[in-house]
Amino acid sequence: MSLESDLFEKLRADENRLLSFGFTRAGDEYVFKAPLCGNTMHAVITVKPGGRPYGRVYDEFDEEYVAFRPDGTRGTFASKVRGEYISLLEKIAAESIYKNTISSDQANRIAVYILKEYRDTPEYIFAKFPEYAVFRHAGGKWYALMAPVSENQIEGLAAKTVILNVKAKESRIAALLSKKGIYPAFHMSRGHWVTVSLDDSLADEEIFDLIAESRVLTGGSKLNTIRSEWIVPANPKYIDLDHAFAMSDLLYWKQSSNVKKGDLVYIYYGAPYSELRYLCEAVETDIPFDGVNDGPINMETLMRLRNIQFFDGGLLNRKMLAGFGVTNIRGPRYMPAELKKEINRLYHLEENKNE
Question: Is the distance from CB of 303 to CB of 309 less than 8 angstroms?
């Protein structure tokens, strides 16, 4: 399948939103042109009414460029083109193609996040409930259900909104239910799932973590045995990361995602540095935090990280990461495969085969 069909398989164009996005009408088609790689390349995306987009990339001589398309694309330039092109497709999908039947602003942000992070699109599979959307693995298992509800459908809900059902560890459910915006599961097993109200009662980043956990818990034994790779942010205002690792290769860190022992954690050091700076291995996870949360960072669970690589030279800066679709790193997210390959090439690291 092509990059376009992979992303847009279940989506169809909204003509009004295409025009608002910046597409222009050309006969019975809609066309959008966008620069890539600092104007040295450009993409042309074409959509027919009711159909999926298809696109082409051209170089500065208006010759079509296709070297970025194969999976496992090698080479810095081809990988950069691929990353920017996929980011463009994701933006189009989120803002002009995405089937928007959801009324909550936060629900739309969460759906866009799922699309960008996991490339999973909402599926409307219930004939009796056409506004209910499920998100699921390629293998077919759901990890989230999004649905509009009224205030009388969930006890304690103050107004009509949109909810998200996610699976959680049984040991965490009681603590989750004590948080504002989280309720016993709506239409799901209450011993394994919770319902989150998408009315901004809970921060987006906390919901991202719940989604990541639900994907792992519903992914089956194979997914749970794969070494995952994460990007997590660090704020220089709160931690001197270089000093901390100079004192010890081991560091306790807030665990706000479903990191497992053995996972790799790439630490993004925020402004004014704005770069990936350290690669660590999680050597211990799910450590209860028994301190007092009296600072800017609220912690419930810790993990212990071991520093295994310092990325010198500033090569993994914000501009470079954006070329692979990694922007606005505000919370934990998965490491894109193409970016990982480029990091391994730049720093001569051995490939993690996840075996």
Answer: no
Task: Give this prediction's pTM.
Answer: 0.51
Q: Under a CB-based contact definition with an 8 Å cutoff, are residues 45 and 32 in contact?
A: yes
Contacts 24+ apart (CB under 8 A), 284-289: 285/255, 285/259, 285/260, 285/261, 286/255, 287/252, 287/255
Which residue in 54, 85, 51 sits closest to 68, CA to CA?
85
**How many other CB atoms are found less than 10 A from the CB of residue 312?**
9
Separation of alpha carbons 234 and 240, rounded Å: 9
Least confident of 78-92, 96-110, 228-242, 275-289: 96-110
Tens-place pLDDT, residues 256-292: 667 888 889 999 999 999 999 999 999 998 888 776 6
Locus of tokens 């019975």: 28
How far is the C-alpha of 156 from the C-alpha of 279, rounded, in Å?
43
| Nearest Cα to Cα of residue 14 among 86, 87, 91, 100 | 100
